Amino acid sequence: MNKKTILSALIISSVSVGAHAANADVDWFVGGGVGYQADNIKGEYTGGDDDATFQLRGGAIINENHRVMGTYAYMDELSQNTFLASYDYIHPVSEKFSVFAGASIGAADSEINNQSSTEFVWGGQAGMMYRINSNWSAELAYRYLDQDYQSHGVKINDTQQVYMSVDYRF
């Protein structure tokens, strides 16, 4: 499946979810997270390819089953700044626990061998959420991102993250 097909499907999904949001129960949220990130780097690079990742995010949960979110993530090892737009389908398992899966698209700016490049990224995520109370929730998730970084004999094939985050709904 090519990237344009995936991007088109995400845009259509976002527009259709947005059209239903006018009559929907919408909970806005902000949050932050921390985790572990590993990049699959090929070529002439001698530095590290894994490190902690720090994330800031915000978005909306629509009718308790649809989440649209913007995320900024930073990884120090590659001076990597990632900006993502995501959609997740949330499935409640119990009153407090839910599982989710979804897709993300965006851009990552990485610096390798003192060369910086901003490239398209896309992928998916899955995880579980715990509703602490009516305002707070915690999440444990895995995200896979395909990357198009290829510069000066170095290529980043993909990024994998395991992260934990806390969100506040208002």
TrEMBL record:
Gene3D superfamilies assigned to the protein according to its UniProt record, in alphabetical order: 2.40.160.20
UniProt keyword annotations, A-Z: Signal
SUPFAM superfamilies: OMPA-like
Signal peptide: 1-21
Domain of life where this protein originates: Bacteria
InterPro entries: Beta-barrel_OMP (IPR027385), OMP/PagP_B-barrel (IPR011250)
KW Signal (keyword) present: yes
Name recorded for this polypeptide: Outer membrane protein H1
Lineage: Bacteria, Pseudomonadati, Pseudomonadota, Gammaproteobacteria, Alteromonadales
